[in-house]
What we know:
This protein is α/β, with parallel strands linked by helices. It is built from 7 helices and 10 strands. The strands form 2 sheets. A 7-stranded mixed beta sheet has the order 2-1-3-4-5-9-10, sandwiched between helices. It has a 3-stranded antiparallel beta sheet with strand order 6-7-8, covered by helices on one side. The longest helix has 18 residues, at 51-68. It is globular. The two termini are 26 Å apart.
Amino acid sequence: MVEFALSQGKSDIFVVHADRHAERVGADAIEQAALEAGANVLGVQSFSYSQQGVLAAIPGIASSFLAYGADTIFVTSGSDGALPWLADLLPEHGIDRATAQFISLQRLDAQSGTLSLKGLQGAWFATPAPVLAQQFNRRYGEAYGSQPNLIASLAYDGIAAIGALVAEGKSNALRADALTQPAGFAGVNGPFRLLSNGTNERGLAVAQVENNQVIVIDPAPTSFGSAGF
C-alpha cells in the first residue's frame, strides 16, 4: 500500500492506531514499509481503545495531521473498531477528503454498511483479487451450502501448500525450508509465501471505495515467480 501511494504521488504519511497490540504491530509495519519504500512518516498518533478514547483523540489527530502537512492518513482500525468514527469525524475537523488520501490497513468490505460511510468514499485498501475470491466463495457454497468466513481461504491455502509440496515428491513438505520457498504458492485468493520470521506475504489488489462499491484500481500480481500450485 505504501508503494502504491508513492506511485500516486502520496509520500507524506500520518499513521493513526488504537493502543492495542494488533494495531501497534500494524503501525510498526507501515513505518517499516515507508522506510523501505522511501516515503515519509511525518507522525504517528495513538488513542485509547474505546469509543470515548477515539472520540477524545479525533480533534488532536486532525490538528496534528494538518500541522505536519501530511497528504496520506493510514488507519489500522477496522469496521468493528474505531474506523467508522475516524472516517466520519476527521473530515469534520478539517481534513479535506479531496486532497488527503485515506488508507485502511484492514479490508473495508468486511462488514455490511462500511462501504456506505461518507468519509470512506475514495479510500484505499488491500484486498484479494475479487474474481479469485468469488470463485472460492462459489465453490465453498456449492460444497457446504453457506458462504465462507473471510479467513476460510487461509486455512484452505495452508493445507493446499503442503499438498502441493507432497505432490512434487518433496519429503520435507512439513519443514520450514520447503514451506518458505521464495516462489511461494498460488493460493485460492492469489499468490502467497511464508517467511522464515513467521510472517507472510500475499499478492493483493488495491481497491478504492467509489459510490459505496469496491473498485479495483491496481490489480493483484499473479505470482512471486514460479508458483507452487
